[in-house]
Design goal:
The chain contains six helices and no strands. With 141 residues, it is mostly helical. The termini are far apart.
Length: 141
């Protein structure tokens, strides 16, 4: 049995901040993140009959947000060098952990607080930025 469209809308808005945070971590632009969120939301409603349950929706939204974010950045010409897939996978894994955790409780799976995970995500992004800048420098020079 699939989720109804009203259930999808409710879940998207309940988890809006987390989804936008994930998208922003990819695009690093609040306006673009909002546009991607809206595109993912519309697509989720169109695909409602294929989304089985809440857990499937979370996974589907994360994958769709990742693909749409990357396509949007390429289309806007803001990301001339694609992210390394392993870094995207690390980012995705960290966000999946956050999704399953209670906001104010320690993350059982990692034994760390939510703030610690956010710091780890920040470090991942810094490493990614360094990697992209290095590739750009090598390509230019």
């Amino acid at each position: 049995m699939s989720l109804e469209q009203d259930q999808i809308v409710r879940l998207l808005f309940v988890h809006r901040a987390r989804i936008l945070g994930y998208i922003w971590s990819l695009v690093r632009d609040f306006d673009v993140a909002e546009d991607v969120f809206q595109e993912v939301s519309v697509l989720a409603l169109k695909k409602a009959s294929t989304i089985r349950d809440e857990q499937h929706l979370h996974h589907w939204v994360r994958v769709s947000a990742r693909l749409i974010s990357l396509a949007t950045m390429r289309r806007l010409g803001r990301w001339p060098v694609p992210m390394d897939a392993s870094l995207l996978d690390q980012l995705d894994s960290a966000w999946q952990t956050i999704e399953t955790a209670q906001v104010d409780e320690p993350l059982e799976a990692m034994g760390q607080s939510l703030n610690t995970v956010y710091v780890a995500l920040s470090r991942i992004h810094r490493t990614l930025r360094k990697c992209v800048r290095g590739r750009l420098a090598r390509a230019e020079g």
